[in-house]
Amino acid sequence: MATRARSITTTERCRTLAEDWEHLLDACRRPAAVLTSRLPLCRDRILGTEAEIRDMLAALSEARLQSAAGVAKASLLLRDGTGPLYNQRCTTDLGAAIQNATRHIRNPTTATYATGT
């Protein structure tokens, strides 16, 4: 688990994740493509939580090893095609999910990770 936590929280990985979230926000502001093989975005839902997303992006820039659970939550939200970003029928509150990820990035649980030292 410690190796995975180190992998998830590298500066490069967190920067890439933040860039992917920025790209998502940009895509929501552009007109929707008529025919595409991509999953449809829940644009109103996403843009309605922009403040929470921006707060999470700021937290990602400060992520540390103990923040792995929060970083993983932020990544899963972005990738889950059945989740609140892409599925209108999903009942998960996007704002609450983003705030939860942010909370876990900034204030990691008291779980400890072996560092191999």
Keywords, separated by commas or semicolons:
disordered C terminus; 0% strand; 117 residues; mainly alpha; globular
Short structural summary:
The protein is mainly alpha-helical and 117 residues long. The chain has helices spanning 2-8, 11-29, 43-48, 50-60, 68-79, 94-106.
Question: Any overview of this molecule?
Answer:
58% of the residues lie in helices and 0% in strands. The protein is mainly alpha-helical. The chain has one domain. Helix 1 packs across helix 5, helix 2 runs antiparallel to helix 4 and helix 5 packs antiparallel against helix 6. The C terminus is likely disordered.
How are the SSEs placed, and which strands pair?
Layout: H1 2-8, H2 11-29, H3 43-48, H4 50-60, H5 68-79, H6 94-106
Helix pairs in contact: 1-5, 2-4, 2-5, 4-6, 5-6
Low-pLDDT residue intervals, each spanning 5 or more residues: 110-117
Whole-number tally of structural domains? 1
The coarse silhouette is globular
How many helix segments? 6
Separation of termini? 15 Å
Q: How would you classify the helix and strand content by structural class?
A: mainly alpha
Portion of residues in beta strands equals under 5%
Q: Biggest sheet, open or closed, and with what strands and sense? A: none
How many β-strands, per DSSP?
0
